């Protein structure tokens, strides 16, 4: 959806990599994450400081093949025993409040790890009774777009992964710089370059950062340097942009326009309910802004029990609420598709009536 913007930026967001360059597994410098390109690390810090969405001081940055790889690296880091400790007898529970990002359960369990296992809803989890856990806190949340905090009861024996993929000013007001032990960000949702497969983790504890780096070493011996260099250039173009060509101004307006069209399309239609968000003060734009999530979390009302099948009959593809741990009366629909697909979607949605 941001393609038009990046076309306009032309050379400023392009790179050429000669055949002889960036051939080694290793990167320069003495950082814990030994395969991270320093240009990328610098641009990550620069952008966070500009946007004000995360504290970077005193943080180790770990780069990953998307934040997906970093999610697995973080599970490994929190659950793998230290050399001086014995293997824990039970896999640690990985939990998240409903509705949660549909990939978390499958990514957690697909290898049937002995270290961790999916534990479901974090709201009903009690750290004292149910044992150690890793809670995933996604804010703003995928699928419903609401801002979130940890919800586990008695949470002193837990670890937390803050998935902040959508904590950018085009999706939600930036109210303060996030300051967690471990947070994840991704190029996919910030600038739209999902295909570059670059994410980064901001990590307080050097031991955790080391274990995450070890996981990536075992998994893929590092992260594509070509991609890291491209990501660095893209982030640089965002930070360098003048007021007229500012990326977040553009992306905020595209999202605002889409949400407006969407609300108009279902206005007065008793079949559907949309989430309602209150505006908040955004320190980046220096004014109140409205949350405008990357996904529409839609509820089908009345008789319609299976909202995804109902929409499919009207040629709209969505993901059922069941995949997010809740009722099939809910569906998630992407708001980030191309302009053409989005307009088709709006047209089809507005033509549905009782
Ligand atoms: N976390 C959340 C909450 C997401 O929505 C997504 C993408 N759908 C990811 C992580 C994975 O993103 P990446 O492309 O960085 O692997």
From TrEMBL:
The organism named in the record is Stylosanthes scabra
Q: What is its EC number?
A: 2.6.1.99
Give the matching Pfam families.
Answer: Alliinase_C
Recorded hits in CDD domains, A to Z, give: AAT_like
Q: Which PANTHER family match?
A: BIFUNCTIONAL ASPARTATE AMINOTRANSFERASE AND GLUTAMATE/ASPARTATE-PREPHENATE AMINOTRANSFERASE-RELATED, TRYPTOPHAN AMINOTRANSFERASE-RELATED PROTEIN 2
State the source organism's domain of life: Eukaryota
Q: Where is the Alliinase C-terminal domain?
A: 1-352
Question: What does the record give as cofactor?
Answer: pyridoxal 5'-phosphate
Q: What is this protein called?
A: Tryptophan aminotransferase- protein 2
Q: Which SUPFAM superfamilies match?
A: PLP-dependent transferases
Stored InterPro entries: Alliinase_C (IPR006948), Alliinase_N_sf (IPR037029), Ethylene_sulfur-biosynth (IPR050478), PyrdxlP-dep_Trfase (IPR015424), PyrdxlP-dep_Trfase_major (IPR015421), PyrdxlP-dep_Trfase_small (IPR015422)
Keywords for this protein: Aminotransferase, Pyridoxal phosphate, Transferase
Is this entry keyworded Repeat?
A: no
Which EC class is the enzyme in?
transferase
Name the gene behind this protein.
TAR2_3
Q: Which GO terms describe its molecular function?
A: L-tryptophan:pyruvate aminotransferase activity
Q: Which family does it belong to?
A: Belongs to the alliinase family.
What is its quaternary makeup? Homodimer.
